[in-house]
Design brief:
Elements: H1 2-8, E1 33-36, E2 55-58, E3 61-64, H2 66-69, H3 76-79, H4 95-108, H5 114-123, E4 126-128, E5 134-136, E6 138-139, E7 143-144, E8 147-150, E9 153-156, H6 157-163, H7 173-177, E10 180-184, E11 190-194, H8 201-210, H9 214-217, H10 219-226, H11 228-241
Parallel strand pairs: 3-11
Antiparallel strand pairs: 1-2, 2-3, 4-5, 6-7, 8-9, 10-11
Length: 242
């Protein structure tokens, strides 16, 4: 999934290497908020959007301003969970998450397809992709091994078991945060990008219709990842950007 999104998305500009030069500070980052780079004329959209820097720093985390300005809300009735199916690499995972997945594996095993079980038996719950990142294993170069189906709808076996109270692990934070993608730079710096993917066009339309910004839609996973204080600061920044 990750590789396909890299090919199909038009992401906001976060750097491919460490910080320094361009839109990014040449030194370390501190707490609080600041805009990085020139906002005027740096992006398309309304005149209000053109005054917003393309990259902001909130609590020591670099974020694409699209996370504050774009709208998004999953429309599962239309997409049927296609983001867990499309693509040619799995979801990014950490070593700690792999441990949580392995702990839940026996519980979710009956929900997995025979093909998924075979892949896991052969290579485990995760592998290293072409970029050198740990990602969840996939079936036939496509489906995540933890997809399961109910009346034609794609579900996450891990998440379903968690919500039924059967396991302690829900799902990788990279899955929960989508359409935000996390990138790590030299020195421990973290960047957050808004990822545009054609299969999520219904989510974009629904988000615009309901006027739900990306950061509001992802409130719970953002708090899970960065904490309540950081999220509160992000909300304050969003208000300043209006």
């Amino acid at each position: 999934m990750e590789e396909e999104q890299k090919q199909q998305t038009n992401q906001a500009p976060l750097p491919s290497g460490g910080v320094g030069g361009g839109l990014f500070p040449s030194g370390g980052v501190g707490g609080g908020f600041r805009g990085l780079g020139s906002g005027a004329g740096s992006r398309g959209g309304s005149s209000a959007d053109s005054r917003i820097p393309p990259i902001l720093e909130v609590g020591g985390v670099l974020i694409s301003s699209d996370i504050l300005t774009e709208r998004f809300c999953c429309d599962y009735e239309k997409c049927k969970g296609i983001c867990c199916v499309e693509g040619d690499a799995g979801a990014p995972v950490t070593m700690d998450e792999i441990g949580g997945i392995e702990e839940a594996l026996d519980t979710v095993w009956p929900d997995l397809s025979a093909q998924a079980q075979s892949v896991i038996d052969r290579q485990g719950v995760a592998y290293t992709d072409s970029d050198g990142d740990l990602v969840t294993s996939i079936v036939g170069g496509k489906d995540c091994v933890f997809t399961c189906y109910d009346s034609g709808n794609c579900l996450c076996a891990l998440e379903r078991a968690y919500h039924k109270g059967k396991t302690r692990f829900c799902k990788p934070i990279s899955c929960a945060l989508y359409p935000i993608r996390e990138k790590h730079f030299d020195g421990g710096l973290i960047g957050l990008n808004y990822s545009r993917w054609d299969v999520c066009r219904d989510a974009v339309e629904k988000g615009r219709r309901l006027d739900i910004p990306v950061y509001r839609f992802l409130k719970e996973p953002l708090i899970r990842r960065f904490g309540q204080q950081w999220y509160d600061e992000l909300c304050e920044v969003a208000q300043l950007m209006k």
